[in-house]
Design brief:
CATH architecture of the largest domain: 3-Layer(aba) Sandwich
Strand content: 35-45%
Strand order of the largest sheet: 26-25-23-27-28-31
Oligomer: single chain
Radius of gyration: 26 Å
Distance between the termini: 53 Å
CATH class of the largest domain: Alpha Beta
């Protein structure tokens, strides 16, 4: 974004606009909807309108980047999901305001999805311009402010509320479509690995949509990768959610993905719940046990245990060498290499990603994500464990306890876990005080006041009537893992 701004300011340096006492320049906020439903998205555009009749020169100043950041900041923590924001290349276009023509400079476009009912107020924004005289000398700074906007956020009708919450906490409100495919150019046999791809597109995907596959459906999930693409066009908030599922099919026959996966959403246009179901079908041939299937049968696939591992930016702090994340992931990788256990792992930052325990060796390629949504990670883990028939179900939560976002409150997530008789064993890693996080250009180590927060982790374990464990060293953590897995494997058999 810094490069984009640099180009932007270069463009602005040759753009001049004119202002007069008759207020022939205006800063306005434009929204594409004035009434929406909870979790439905709308687009907001901040524009500077310059009348064709202006006769005084003005120029954008070097505070524009700061002012745009302040606009973005004013929309944070306001009971909404900020799906995307982008600075638009500022080229004037002709628009009419109160019948009069203006040059319109679009400064910012953003997609917003409120998740609480009531009146959502888009606050007043401000932008300053430099006033020039005829000799191009700065003589004054002029401030322009937009008027607030109010959007009515309606509750989803009670007649459909129960349906939209069934089997899925994420809410989809709007109009959506689905495309899907199986990535395979040969016959599929029992035990073969396949890749299922699906893309949900629509008018603003608010909260992160998950891909859930029933674990009893004859399919062993190896990993689920998800990514979101945004396309903020003029007066729209289109986006796409892509899923890449790697799995092993365990039974022969015809496998219809639409029988095991679906996404429900509320359509304001039709005022009803609609469902997206994949059309992909794969025929699985039975030729006896393949080497791949034998590999999965040789491992003890625990359905009553799942790991939620924090991979957010704070886990890359260096109070453990080389980082917190590599410290715990190394122990986990060695544990699964030495033992025949197979469980899913939820990697989480501001989003979540599901992998299998056998894929931990690739954790070094994980990007440093901003934000830590512990509540979201707990909810993803709950959705997996609630299908288990075991009387002992546990989430092993590993992280530094720094919780900075997400739609799911950690208390709510913990209460839901308790309702499903799921315990959360928390493992906290981090040292308090100033900790190293990297070197500067001169090679000197830089320090930051640590964000380690074991009180969050202790609270989660307390609410689910479970235990908190403080990470100290690799040997102790390895012993703790052996205790946990042994008790759950005995309960699983």
């Amino acid at each position: 974004m810094i490069q984009r701004l640099a180009v932007l300011f270069l463009t602005l340096s040759i753009q001049t606009v004119v202002w007069s006492q008759e207020s022939k320049i205006r800063l306005i906020s434009k929204i594409n909807k004035d009434s929406i439903y909870v979790n439905e998205c709308f687009s907001l555009s901040v524009r500077l309108l310059v009348s064709f009749e202006n006769d005084v020169k003005l120029e954008f100043n070097d505070q524009l980047e700061v002012e745009i950041q302040e606009i973005k900041q004013s929309l944070k923590n306001r009971n909404l999901v900020n799906r995307d924001w982008q600075i638009v290349d500022i080229e004037p276009r002709t628009e009419y305001y109160n019948i009069k023509p203006y040059h319109a400079y679009e400064l910012l476009r953003i997609g917003l999805c409120p998740y609480e009912p009531g009146n959502f107020v888009v606050p007043s924004f401000s932008v300053s311009l430099i006033k020039l005289d005829s000799a191009e000398i700065v003589v004054d700074t002029v401030m322009f402010s937009s008027e607030p906007k109010v959007i009515v956020v309606n509750r989803i009708p009670e007649t459909v509320t129960d349906l939209i919450y069934t089997n899925e906490f994420y809410k989809m409100v709007g109009e959506f479509n689905l495309s899907d495919t199986i990535e395979s150019d040969k016959k599929v046999y029992v035990g073969d690995t396949i890749v299922f791809k699906a893309t949900i597109g629509g008018n603003g995907i608010g909260r992160m949509i998950d891909c859930n596959i029933d674990s009893t459906s004859g399919i062993q999930i190896l990993s689920i990768d998800a990514s979101t693409e945004k396309d903020l066009k003029h007066r729209s908030t289109k986006s796409r959610r892509n899923f890449h599922v790697k799995a092993v099919l365990l039974d022969s026959g015809t496998f219809h993905f639409g029988n095991f996966i679906n996404w429900n959403y509320y359509s304001p246009k039709d005022d009803r719940i609609k469902s997206l179901r994949p059309k992909s079908v794969v025929v699985v041939h039975n030729v006896g046990k393949s080497e791949n299937l034998q590999k999965y049968d040789s491992s003890l696939n625990l359905t009553n245990l799942i790991i939620a591992l924090d991979v957010s930016q704070s886990m890359f702090l260096k109070d453990y060498q080389p980082t917190r994340l590599e410290e715990v992931s190394t122990v986990l990788h060695n544990f699964f290499r030495q033992n025949d256990y197979a469980i899913p792992i939820i990697l989480f930052s501001d989003e979540t990603r599901r992998i299998s325990s056998g894929e931990l060796s690739s954790i070094e390629f994980i990007e440093k994500f901003d934000g830590t949504a512990i509540g979201n990670a707990l909810w993803e883990s709950i959705k997996h464990l609630r299908q288990s028939k075991s009387s002992k179900k546990t989430i092993l939560l590993i992280g530094d306890g720094d919780n900075t976002g997400g739609f799911m409150n950690i208390v709510t997530a913990s209460q839901i876990a308790k309702q499903y008789e799921i315990k959360v064993i928390s493992v906290g890693i981090g040292k308090k005080g100033k900790v190293p996080y990297g070197e500067n250009l001169l090679g000197d180590m830089m320090y930051i006041e640590d964000t380690y927060n074991d009180s969050t982790l202790k609270k989660i374990s307390e609410l689910t009537e479970s235990d908190f464990y403080r990470y100290t060293d690799r040997e102790s953590f390895m012993n703790k893992l052996e205790q946990i897995f042994q008790s759950h494997s005995l309960n699983e058999r």
